[in-house]
Structure formats: structure tokens, C-alpha cells
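Final report, results section. Input specification for complex C-07:
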Amino acid sequence: MVGLLEIVRLRVAGRPLLLCLALAAAVWLVARRSPHRAWPASVTLGRTLATISLVALVAYAVIVVDYARDPHYVDPAEPTMTAIGWLFALGRPIYHGVDAAERYAHIYGPMAFIPHGVVLRLFGPSIGASKWLGAAAALLSLVCTFLALRRVAPPWRALTLTGACALAWLGFRHYTFWTRPEPLQLLCVSAGLLASVRARGVIGGVALGICAGLLWNLKITGPLYTLPLLVILWHGAGARATLAATGVAVAVFAWPFAALPNVSFRDYLTWVRLSSQNGLLLSMLRQNMEWAAFFLLPLLVSYYGARPDDRPRGGSWRGLIAALVVGIGGVCVAASKPGAGVYHLLPFLPIVAWATARALAGASLDHDRGARVLALSCAITACLIAIAQQTSFLTLAHARHTWRDTEDVRAFAASHPGAIVAMAYSGDDELTFVRPELVFASGSYLIDAPAVQEHQLSGVALPQATIDAVRDCRIDIWLVPRGAAPFEGLNRYPAMARTPLFSDRFRTAFHASYVRDGATRYFDIWTCRTSRAR
Amino acid sequence: MPDEPRTMTGHDRAATWLWRTWWLLMPAFAGLVLRLVFERTCAAPYELLPSLTSIPVLAWLFAGLYLAAHAWMAAALLFTIERGGSLVPTRAGVRRIWRGHLLQLTLAIVLFAIEYGPVPLWQAVGQRVLRCGP
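Structure output:
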């Protein structure tokens, strides 16, 4: 069964629209042969979708909590967020200069790291605390989505559509609750949606402005997500509230750069500009377009499935749809940059759910059998993809539950007080995901492999300063996954054709300065030949 | 009962817009799709036109064309649903709505079918029929 699901995941989980249309054709054939002309009946369909949504909500919550409770990451860039978040908490820069010895700068906005720094300060530095931030943001975003939906839908329909969001998110493994900016984006969009639909004058505008500013500060594409929210606010609370929202958003966006000495706008822009030179992947653009169409399918079905007289109309509806389409179209293109992907579209889902609820308000799908068939096919497709992806993800995540690498690293760092210990990378880098523990202990982070990979793609090689830092033993001890050759990893971007991540000069400098000096249970210890820590 | 399908007339602004923009977008999109199919068939199926798409200006140009063609197709779909009065209009309904421009619609659908065809299919064509491929 697991093997079959893996085949589904690999072969069809990336083609949701084609799968949905194929299922719709099959369901249509069944429906035409059914003795009941109205099959699938509107009431039965509603109950089926509500049941699926409820199960998805419960499953989502259970999986989120399960992931947060285990001190292991699954994605290589998750530890990066935690490590840089802790550096921020210590007053170190989030973005270093292009020629600096440190190699950890990313193109995420500062708010991708600041909340991690704050949480680690509040609850103490640990991988668990950073994981709970993503988990809490994801769960809270579902609550905000439900409350926003309640403005335009009865409780059961609001719950069904909230569950539909959870179901769609389950189709993306742990991307909506991992330790990266996406959960925070989801929270900002859903809280912003709640603010814009419940807005009372300028106060609503200020609330949306805060959410929008945070969104702009999470990723450079932030304004595209806020477009539909501003349109909703404009039509609900007027021009003054929208102006207030925009003003507050600009202020919130500018705040970390203006007020925090360790957040440099110039360096942030430099890294973004370098990354923008990487071009686009047309294969990824096609995938983004297909997913965007699939995500918008419920909206299409609910709008055109209703009788013409029951459909929403007027400037507010047209404005919302136009803003949504422009936002999604823009993100589709931006997310076809190497290293991005479909998951950049996920923050739009609460808005799509809200628009769907609005289209369904006072309407039903009794009118159109095709709409009911499409709705059912859409749900089955989302279920199939979610089950296949979660089976794969949970198998991978649970395999790490028994690892004691966190304790191993923590014990080693504790037994070497005063020494700067860092994680070296190798081809098999899963064990290096525990590296934030070393950053917590030393307050130092010289090299982040995902950042080096991104820099290399942008044409930025390791600078001389980094090679000098290694040659001069700025790090006393490097931990390398046992049996692996230090710094032998390859760049995984296809455009880099698997070139070595670390140059020969860098590796030569490393081997000239460090020597293997024992091992822990999980790691080899490479110590500076001249270090006092030996 | 669904609304009676309406036909496209010369006075229909939406129809005129669709008809004119087809000529603006689809020939270029057809060229791009055929080139991409060649890449999927005979070169790397996921790293399409790497030498061109790694140049930001050209990449944005291709993306703009690609996006605009999709916007056209979406507009044509919504137009057909709106005029047909149903999410799944009948074949006769589609013919009546697109009378005089059915060939344009068919060509656009064929282009999208080619572009969204499964990659393994193109790879198989490359390996077994054209004897090319990675």
C-alpha cells in the first residue's frame, strides 16, 4: 500500500489539474449511468465534503503537533532559520556583506528570522522552540481563516472550507508548518483576511497594515499576497481605512531596517538583487500554473455552479477576483525561480476559501450537475495527494525519531566550554540539520550550506575571507557526520550541474588546518591543529 | 434549465477582444510550446532552454508570454462557461458560441494539451521514435 502511494506521489501528485479532470471524467460517466439523475446530490455532496474536511482538520492538527514535538528537522533550510534567528537574538547581523567571511545570508526578509530570535530568547534556545513557532502559526492561521469565513458563511460551511485549506496544505508535506517563512506567511494572510473582513474603519486598516507589513518583510513577493486583502478592505471599510493600512504596512516594513542595527537594508537588497539574476525555470512555471488553476477550481465551481441570479456581482467581487488573479499570476512567475516552487501559492488559499464562501452565500450547486461532479473530483484529488504526500513525509520524519543526534551534539558542546564548535557538511547532510545546537552553544555561525548553494547559483563564490577564516582556525572544532569527508557536498541546483559546493582551495585550507581527532556517536571530530581546544 | 447558449456577434466586445488577442499571443506561444516539447523530447525535460532562461530579461519575456497565453485560455474558458450557461457546456453549445472562430479555439486547446502532456510521454517519443534524448 505504501509502495502504491509512493507511485501516486511520484507520478501524479504534481499534476493536480490533470488528475482532477481525469477523475471528473470518470465521475461524470458514473453519474450519467446512475439511476438517480441528480447524482451526486447536493446534500450528499455537502455532507461528504464536510466529513472529508473534518478529518483533514483533525489529521492536520495531529501531524503538526507530532512534527513539532520531535527535535529533528526534515528540510535542509529549516536549521538555517533557527541558527540565524539565534544570531539575531545575540545582536549579530541577519545579512552579512558579500565579501564577509560568514556565509549564511538568504533572500528572505528579516521577519523570517526575527520571530525565531524572539521565541528562542523567550523560551530558551532549542530546536523544539523554533519548531513550535511554525506549528503554532499554522494552527492559528486555520483559526483566523475559520473566523474570517464565519463572516460570510454558516458554521458548517466555514468549517468545511477551513478543512479544505487544511486538506490542500496536507498535500504539501510539512511546508505549511515547517521552520521556514511559510507558516508565518499563512498566519499573516489569514489574520489580515480576518482584519479586512471584520474591519471597523481605521482600526481595521491598522490591523491589516500590520499583517501586510509583516508579509512584505517575510518575502520580497509579500505585496502580491496583500493585494486581495486591500481590495476587500477598500470595499468593506472605505478609502481611509485602506490608506491607513498601506501607511502602516510601509512603516512596519521599514521598521526592522530603520530601528535595528543588525538588519541592513543595503545588504538585504544586495542579496535579493544577486538572486534575481538567476533566471526562471519554465518547467516550474508550468507546474505553478497548473496548481494555481487547481487551487482556483473551487471558486470557479462555486461561482458558476450557482444560478446566475444568486452569483455575487458588483465592484467588490470583480475587484477581489482581479486582485486575486494578479497576485496569483505574479507569484506563479516569481515562484518559478530556481529553488522556489508551488508552495509559494499556499498563502492564497485562505483568500480563495473566503471568496468561495462568498460565491456560495445564498446559493447551492443544485443548479449544475457538472459543478457537483467537479467539486467531488476536486476533493478526491486533494485527498489522494494529501494521503500520498503525508505517508511519504511521516515515514521520513518518524525514521528520525529514534536518532539521538541532538543529545550527542549538545553533550559534546557542553564538554567543550569556550571552544567554538561548528558543523561541517558532507554529501549526506541529514545529520547536519542539528547544527543550530552548536550555534546556540557558540553564538557563531560561519557557514550555512543552503546559503552557499544559493550564493553559488547567483555566481558568488566563497570569498577569500571565508577561506582565511578556516585556515586561521576561527572555528576550533568541526563536527562531520561519521565516516563522511568534510565539505564534499555538491550543489543540488540542476543549473549548477552538481558542481562541488566547496572549492578545492577551501578544502585544501581545511585539511591544512584541521585533523581528525576522535568521534562521538554520530560525528567525527576535526580539531584545529594549533587550537587550545585539542 | 441552463440559459440558452448565445452566439458570438461582432458587437460582442469580449468576443472581439478574445479574437484579436489570439493573433497577438498564440502564434508566439505556439513557437514556444513546440520548442519546449522538443526540449522535453530530446534534451533535459525539466531544465528547459537553460541558456535562454538563465538570462533574466529573456526569462521574464518568456514568462510574460506564457502567463498571457494562460490568461487568454482562462478568459476563453470563462467566456464559454458564461455564454453556455453551464460549467460543462455541450459540444453543440460550444460550436454555437465560437461560430466562425472554432479553429482558433481548437488550436489553442491543442497547444495547451501539448504543453501539459505528461513528460514521460515526450521522453518515450524521443527515445523510441526520434532516437534522441538525454
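The radius of gyration of chain A is 25 Å. The mean pLDDT of chain A is 94. This concludes the modelling results for the funded period.
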